[in-house]
Amino acid sequence: MKRASNFFNSLLIIIFLLLSSCSDDNNIATDSPEVISNREVKIAVVLKKGDRQERVQRILDMARENITMARGGVVPSYEYYDEDTTALASLAVELASRQDIAAVVGCYDDQHTKTLAYECAKTDKTMFTFNTSQELARIFGQHGNYWGLSESDITQCEILLSLMADGGVQFDVALLACDNDYGQTFVDWFAFQAAEMGLNPVGLATYKDKSEIPDAYLKACANNPTLTLCVPNNAEEASIMYECTKMDNFSHFSVPFFTDRAYEPAMLKNEGLVGLNLVADPASGFGVVYKSRFGEAPIHGDAELYDAIMLTCLASRYDEVHNLDNLNYAVGTLLYYHSDSQGGWMSGNMKQAFETIAEGGVPEVSGAVGKLDFDPKNYTLITHSTYDFWMVYEGQFLSLNYMKRSEGEHSSSPIVSWEWNKTYQQQFDEHMSDIGYPALTGNKAVIIAGSGGWENYRFQADALEYYQMLRNSGYSDDDIILIMADDLAQNANNPEKGVVRRSVDGDNLYKNVVVDYRLEDITYNDLAVIFSGKPDVAHPEVLDSGAGDNVLFFWSSHGMPAGLALGDIDLVSGKQMARILQKMSDEQRFRKMMWIVEACFSGGVAKECEGIPGLLVMTAANANESSKADLWYAPYNVYLTNRFTSSIISRLYSDPATSLRDLYNVAFTGTLGSHVTIYNADNYGNLYQNTMREFLGK
């Protein structure tokens, strides 16, 4: 990882910046008595009050004081709302529509931030946040009004795992996380990143209530991990986690590494505890000035709030000088020309920035958090945050190191696409002798969208894309068993009744669709009958394949370590599917079967099916990973597709005769945040020689 420069140089920089700050303020105070007419820039601040109110108010006052001293012709004024006690849904609508509000800053809570961002996106209201949930940037980053001043927790997860991997030892690691939007980022990325770093993920557990933490800890650590990544929602939950390491009924001790929400004074009683926390770049000088002024170090959110106020005022002045009437464009222009120097948040440097703007130029700006590096194509999130690796020592938080994500390596910051360069790819034997099969006489297909509801739009949309692709390649409807909830086309949330799309300008996938079974009518037992090929009154449509038929089987749904979702309640386990498919094989009811599974933790189900002749399973994720949605569509307020399916479909349309090995490569490299995995290749054949033409050749 990229580490801070040596202590001596850092100390000189901090002293220089501190002295500069002091002399800068003094110079301004003794300047000419010219009166500057300041235009008010009104900013809505939607953050917690309670024990946070004093900290927030400090930053608001400090920013207004320095901006006033910079004499740039604008000064911030605030409307401060408590995100926990205000009727946030109605407030969000009001703030997003008010012309007198230049920008909105909020929130701490993930769901609150989403509520606010959703309304601001509708009106293009400029919004700043330091919330670190991965989903927020993916959903709102494409609107051009959402500015994140902290990297997402994908990076925090990466850095914590890199600390665990230090020394090159392949430690067994586990994850214990709160079951909410904050914890979900770690659940989504933990196993994937651990595998990439040479760690061995052996356990994962979540909890909804603090009372569930001890049982969740035992579940996460059941396989005796050396290290456990602990993701509490607050310091109280972190303390419970720490006490779990001392439980009498659990002899194995796993070293806990804590995330930023454990960085609270209540944790100082736990000597030796280690964790990570978002901080301002020490080189900016903000932390030193803040501690000198207030007697304590800033926490995550302090520097980010300051920068949000500063950027709003600078952009508002730029917008005014250039008659833009587009604050988001002004913010983007300022962030495009970021400064390589530090200390731009101080009044003297802000004064220079305002003067450059007044002269018609674009200043180079840096902030209290450090360099304001944003991706120039997509913006959305700052590309490099600074993290403090801390340890509790003698009742204090001792900083062990300041860390940033490695530049040019794992690009985990979700600048909309949140790309990661995967390295752990499967290898297949190019010279393997192929398996002899009977002649191909027909093609059949089973398509299951196991999760329904508008919020799960992508699963049915992907299933319908497969259906239409097969129909276009020559399958009749009698050749396809289609199982789905069928609740999208006429859904109350659908602005285009009768239409289901998988891309913004895509075809209507619902056209001429025949749904054989609706999800609410299907259980595992029904599946067993359908795959048996023996129709009855309740199951008139069955998979009537024979020894010469190739069967393409696609399943898209939510998944859990215990199995694949089949509706809101049922889970179909790997053992259950193995029984169905093994029975088909024993009865010689398929020649070859290609099963493509789009679901979280789908590798666990596929692994149970290994050993069945003629079966090849390709999964979106291995047994420890979650798969990832793709392409958020604001008018529908849903994801339209899943990334794994999107990669495969694109390849099959462009090259229906692609080899299975090439299809795997395309899916592997095109799928973000999980390892696409092939199962049972040894019982299927040479993946270099076998192609998808056998399934799409009609």
TrEMBL record:
UniProt xrefs under Pfam families: Peptidase_C13 (PF01650)
Keyword hit for Mitochondrion = no
The record ties this protein, via InterPro entries, to:
Peptidase_C13 (IPR001096), Peripla_BP_I (IPR028082)
Keywords, in A-Z order:
Signal
Q: Is Signal one of the keywords UniProt gives this record?
A: yes
Q: Please report the name of this protein according to its UniProt entry.
A: Legumain
Q: Which organism is it from?
A: Xylanibacter brevis
Where does the source fall among the domains of life? Bacteria
Extract the signal peptide range.
1-25
Alphabetical list of Gene3D superfamilies matching this protein: 3.40.50.1460, 3.40.50.2300
